[in-house]
Amino acid sequence: MTRRKHGPSIPPTVPAAPRDDRATPPVMPSPAPPAAEATPAAMAGDGQPRRRFVVRLWSILGVAALGELAWVTGSFLRPRGRDAASSGLFVAGPADRFEPGSVTAFPTGHFYLVRLADGGFLALHRECTHLGCTVPWDATQRRFACPCHASAFDITGQVLNAPAPRPLDFYPVRVENGVVRVDTRQRRQRTAFDAASQVTVG
Ligand code: FES
User: Fold this and answer.
1) Closest ligand 1 atom, CA of 131?
2) Helical H runs in the chain?
3) Which residue from 124, 134, 148, 169 has its CB within 8 A of the most atoms of ligand 1, so it is best to mutate?
4) What is the pLDDT of residues 43-69, one digit of tens each?
5) Are strands 170-171 and 159-161 parallel, antiparallel or unpaired?
6) How far apart are CA 77 and CA 49, in angstroms?
7) Which of 131, 134, 135, 168 gets mutated to test ligand 1 (max ligand atoms within 8 A of its CB)?
8) Alpha carbon of 161 to ligand 1 centroid (Å)
9) Which atom of ligand 1 lies closest to the CA of 150?
10) Domain boundary assignment for the chain
């Protein structure tokens, strides 16, 4: 009988797996979860920017409208400096267009053309001689009545009520070939009625 030698047991050699030198394949990101369904709340959230834009737009328009209103009101009542717009010979129109006893406003020229009862013309500057407010013509009371401090002037511009210190200023008037022209380059002051301020058409 054959006796088997005893010794340390050697495990059987396992052949090593061939090394894979290829690069590790990239890990693909997991797909994003599906987008949440549009709910009424989400839809309301989407409308917020548009609503904010509309509100902002209306705010801007409102401010612009208020600014324009303030400018128009202020330009009517504000005391004025020298008349920068009144430069040049202003053609008022044919003389027979203006009835005796009439007062015609020329806003762009900043004057009133008065045709007196005797047919003469007078161009009165529209600013009050107190602090320069625009003086409207009151056709009912037939006077210029200042809205700022209650000065009043008659149809020739003479002071009826203080605090205006002097009559309304005037511009030279010329009637040439039946056409009334006002020289708005020459604004003149006076302390009383000045016959030179009036032009009579024969
Ligand atoms: S500005 Fe006309 S009365 Fe004062």
Assistant:
1) 1
2) 40-77
3) 148
4) 545 567 788 888 887 887 777 667 666
5) unpaired
6) 42
7) 131
8) 10
9) 3
10) 47-78, 89-200
**What topology is assigned to 89-200 in CATH?**
Rieske Iron-sulfur Protein (2.102.10)
Measured distance CA(160)–CA(86) in Å, rounded = 26
φ, ψ (nearest 5 deg) of residue 92: -85, -30
Distance CA 183, CA 189 (A): 14
Question: How do residues 89-101 score in pLDDT, each as one tens digit?
Answer: 899 999 999 999 9
Would you mind telling me the total number of residues written for the chain in this entry?
202
Residues having CB within 6 Å of any atom of ligand 1: 128, 130-131, 133, 146, 148-149, 151, 163-164
Q: Residues 115, 121: contact at Cβ < 8 Å? A: yes
Between the CA of 154 and the centroid of ligand 1 the distance, in Å, is 15
- In this prediction, residue 198 has a pLDDT band, given cuts at 50, 70 and 90, of low
Place of tokens 């602090």: 131
What pTM value is reported for the model? 0.56
